[in-house]
Design a protein that fits this description.
- The structure is a single chain.
- The chain is built from four helices and nine strands; from the N terminus they run βααβββαβαββββ.
- With 167 residues, the chain is an alpha/beta fold.
- The chain has one domain (2-163): Rossmann fold (3-Layer(aba) Sandwich), CATH 3.40.50.
- The protein has a nine-stranded mixed β-sheet.
- The longest helix is centred in the N-terminal third of the chain and has 14 residues, at 11-24.
- The protein is globular and about 40 Å long.
- This is Probable Brix domain-containing ribosomal biogenesis protein.
- Keywords: Ribosome biogenesis.
- It comes from Methanocaldococcus vulcanius (strain ATCC 700851 / DSM 12094 / M7) (Methanococcus vulcanius).
- Probably involved in the biogenesis of the ribosome.
- Residues 1-167 form the Brix domain.
Amino acid sequence: MIITTSRKPSQRTRSFARDLERTLNIPYIQRGKTPLKELFKIDDHILLIGEFKGNPGSLVIYDVENEKTLSSFISVKLQKEICGEKIENKDGIRIKIDKEIDEETLPYIDLFDKFLFQHLNVNEESNIILKLEKDPKYLFSIQFYKGRVKIGPLIRIKSIKLFDSLV
């Protein structure tokens, strides 16, 4: 899986992409004028960060293999807003996933699990924890922890849609 942004991203969107790159240990490719079709040749799974009014506003996950697209509207807080520093996942891609959700949220979590989380090397021994939490204003939120300390970024999922085509 690779991370990229929409064309001409704002500084905040680039910062969010770099936060995800550091935390998830997934490569971030600066897109520039590169068409999506070229990126599909690099990897079968693309995480595209879209913008709304200069802020990260959507996550679109392309699954070229199965010709499916998962689109979600989001709200984010960057690492520097949560903990004031850049924290890297030096253990590799090992992530522990902790779910604190209810039955109503489970179908949405399953979609994210299928499209995003299965591409992470999940390991119960990791010191980086990806915690899925119930959020009263949103479907759910994704918060990263190192031990018990929030390290960010915080991703709040507003809505999710699944499409049967790539573009």
